[in-house]
Design a protein that fits this description.
The protein is α/β, with parallel strands linked by helices and 258 residues long. A six-stranded mixed β-sheet has the order 6-7-8-4-9-10, with helices on both faces. Strands 1, 2, 3 and 5 form a four-stranded antiparallel β-sheet that branches. β9 and β10 form a beta hairpin. α2 packs across α3 and α4 packs parallel to α5. The chain is globular. The two termini are 25 Å apart.
């Protein structure tokens, strides 16, 4: 969208301004020097406390790069990323790959608290029990290992893990794409419940416009590393202005009640 004026608001939780992010490709041919390749191009947007913002676009358009830039995983960027809250956390697409297979669920959930080192053993145990109940599981799962859980249960554990340090912003990167339709619906309802009860802001990344419409109040559309359009769900789904947005919507509008 190019340069844009971002309104300053005391309720803001994240401001991204004129962001250009880069990866270094491996050296090819006779060259020994990695090639610096631009992925994100002049990305600007703002998020407010407690809102759920959708980021949609085809695979490879730069959605995950944006998430990793916000979390300082991708460090090669120009522009600014300003957080106005406690450390943001990520929920990844693959719940099994996100969990240590050799450890119990209880050990995994307690680990961020051990690293922080502020709580006693009893306080950490209490926090772990609270979190696993919050995501709809009981304490009996704490002695299990990730391989003993279903995909939906593992994703619930990943959500609990993201919540352990009480963040005010969560980035959910394709959090339901690896799940079947019934389980997808359960996880989406859980995220909406947590958003309502805890007031957590969620940047919800997906290629599925139907899923985004069901959970997000505002939507950003990304194409080839640029945000080509952003607005409320009503504006994007009922009155899209960019040809790419219209193209994405053509295949799903019949299935949406808009």
């Amino acid at each position: 969208m190019g340069n844009c004026d971002i309104k300053i608001d005391e309720n803001r939780i994240l401001t991204v301004s004129n962001l250009n992010s880069y990866y270094k490709d491996k050296a090819a041919g006779f060259s020994m020097t990695p090639v610096r390749r631009q992925i994100l191009k002049d990305v600007s947007f703002e998020m407010m406390k407690g809102e759920i913002v959708g980021l949609v676009g085809e695979s490879g358009c730069g959605k995950s790069t944006l998430a990793k830039s916000i979390l300082d995983i991708v460090k090669d960027y120009e522009g600014s990323i300003e957080h106005y809250s406690r450390g943001a956390q990520m929920i990844f697409q693959d719940p099994y790959g996100s969990l240590n297979p050799s450890k119990t669920i209880g050990w995994i959930l307690e680990e961020p608290l051990r690293i922080r080192g502020e709580l006693k053993d009893s306080e950490r145990n209490k926090r772990v029990n609270e979190m696993i109940r919050l995501v709809g599981l009981d304490e009996g799962y704490l002695d299990r290992r990730p391989r003993e859980l279903s995909g939906g249960q593992r994703q619930r554990i990943c959500i609990a893990l993201a919540l352990m340090l009480e963040p005010e912003l969560i980035i959910a990167d394709e959090p339901v794409s690896a799940l079947d339709v019934t389980v997808q619906d359960q996880i989406l309802k859980l995220l909406l419940k947590l958003n309502k009860e805890l007031g957590i802001a969620i940047l919800f990344i997906s290629h599925d416009l139907k899923v985004v419409y069901s959970v997000c109040s505002r939507v950003m559309v990304m194409k080839e590393g640029e945000i080509v359009e952003q607005g409320t769900d009503e504006e994007i789904y009922k009155s899209p202005s960019h040809p790419y947005t219209k193209q994405l919507l053509n295949s799903v509008l019949e299935d949406l009640d808009v």
